[in-house]
Amino acid sequence: MTQPNLLFVFVDQMRGQAMGFLGEEPVRTPSLDRFASEGLVLDSVSATYPVCSPYRAMLMTGKYPHANRVISNCTSRTAPYGVELQEDDRCWSDILKENDYSLGYIGKWHLDSPQEPYIDCYNNRGETKWNEWCPPHRRHGFDFWYSYGTYDHHDRPMYWRTDAARDEFHFVDQWGPEHEADLAIDYLRNEGGTYRDPAEPFGLVVSMNPPHMPYDRVPERYVERYADLSDDELCTRPDIPPAETKWGDYYRANIRNYLAMITGIDEQFGRILEALEDAGLAEETIVVFTSDHGNCLGIHEKISKNNHYEESVRVPFIIRWPGEIHHRRDDLLLSAPDIYPTLMDLMGLAEAIPDTVEGCSCAGVFRGDEGARPTSQLYIWVDPERPAEGRRGLRTHWYTMMVEREGGEEHVTLHDNQADPYQLENIAPDSPALVASLSEQLNRWLRKTNDPWLSAAP
């Protein structure tokens, strides 16, 4: 089999419900709707730890947070705890590089700890520093590099080029996703072999920051596409807090721009797909579209992500590989660490997957074969200062259970996702037997991932 190319596009903070063809949100995504009709749509993919850096580390390493050490976002606050992608981890990109792939990374990285003297940019001027350059020896095989750590001025983004030194970043007066799509298109066209070796297969990651906050940094042309919808038409979910409440007003103030950002991303993704087709590469390229986590936007009185609710933990996931993966929808319980081994297995590189990878390959299921299917997904949130506390949880096709531990006390939340899909009711107090059963499953996950939670149980 000829080695397939890989085009992996993922965005930041797009919840899994926000695709037009699902009919769950008043969002307009014609490119994704068309893409979904050509590939495998997974409806139950979990971010596992719905925050930027932990998801990205699980994606790259196939390990859960306590194994890859990214137990929180990479910031100056977490730097003393070694919270960053480890140089000696064997990422899937390392495997592709060793198998003669040309590799490119465009957009947000957010896997390096900020170091003094801090990069002079707006999100490094507060008490907590966020942004950092990734030196070449930490790029895990990516030879074309056009990236940044984390930077949220979407309409004037900053980047480091492949050969740029730490102090040689630059700014661009263009909406980030559009600029990154332009560059991805150039990479795919590869005129004159400028971006990659045309004789080698390629792996390209395009990591777009929107629809991450701030939500007002979106081109007006996308906001205008929602001008015909009233606030009431944009707020049809029963779990949206009512108007004239803190979080109800927050939702109403931001939902139009949030959906507009998704429409903008959809348009840029469509441009990339068109360029792939025009370059004659579509048939031999695996294309993935997903997100690092979702966004509550005030639902459940949560400002965005970093919680167990469906709006936060469930992410979009669509994969297309013509002739190899047939169009359908599937409720496979795929988790973030499973993406690495699944892709490597699909690409014929299963034997190169290191034993340290904790995720499981679902390549057989992707191809439509009978295969092992996970029966649950782990949810995790960790405070680096108190790693045995925080939140741990379990998500199945039927239930979501979350246990919060603080100061030696534990509080359990349990939702019946079939009877109560918007998770409005906590049934834990009336369901002790079910809580006990799900707790046994959760403990198996925690043992598998060597979580210090178990050793500190009250």
Strand portion? 15-25%
**CATH class annotation of the largest domain:** Alpha Beta
CATH third-tier fold name of the largest domain? Alkaline Phosphatase, subunit A
| Major sheet strand order | 7-6-5-4-8-1-9-11-2-12
Describe this structure in words.
The chain has 458 residues and is an alpha/beta fold. The chain folds into two domains: 5-366, 3-Layer(aba) Sandwich (Alkaline Phosphatase, subunit A); 377-456, Arylsulfatase, C-terminal domain (2-Layer Sandwich). 25% of the residues lie in helices and 19% in strands. It contains twelve helices and 16 strands. It has helices at residues 30-36, 52-61, 65-68, 92-98, 176-189, 220-223, 231-234, 246-278, 310-313, 339-346, 363-366, 432-448; strands at 5-11, 40-42, 45-46, 102-108, 144-148, 158-161, 170-171, 202-207, 285-291, 314-315, 317-320, 328-330, 377-383, 386-395, 399-406, 409-416. The strands form three sheets. It has a ten-stranded mixed beta sheet with strand order 7-6-5-4-8-1-9-11-2-12, sandwiched between helices. A four-stranded antiparallel beta sheet has the order 13-14-15-16, covered by helices on one side. Helix 5 (176-189) runs parallel beside helix 8. The longest helix is centred in the middle third of the chain and has 33 residues, at 246-278. The chain is globular and about 65 Å long. The protein starts with a strand and ends in a 10-residue tail after the last helix. The relative contact order is 0.17.
List the helices and strands and how they pair.
Blueprint: E1 5-11, H1 30-36, E2 40-42, E3 45-46, H2 52-61, H3 65-68, H4 92-98, E4 102-108, E5 144-148, E6 158-161, E7 170-171, H5 176-189, E8 202-207, H6 220-223, H7 231-234, H8 246-278, E9 285-291, H9 310-313, E10 314-315, E11 317-320, E12 328-330, H10 339-346, H11 363-366, E13 377-383, E14 386-395, E15 399-406, E16 409-416, H12 432-448
Parallel strand pairs: 1-8, 1-9, 2-12, 4-5, 4-8
Antiparallel strand pairs: 2-11, 3-10, 5-6, 6-7, 9-11, 13-14, 14-15, 15-16
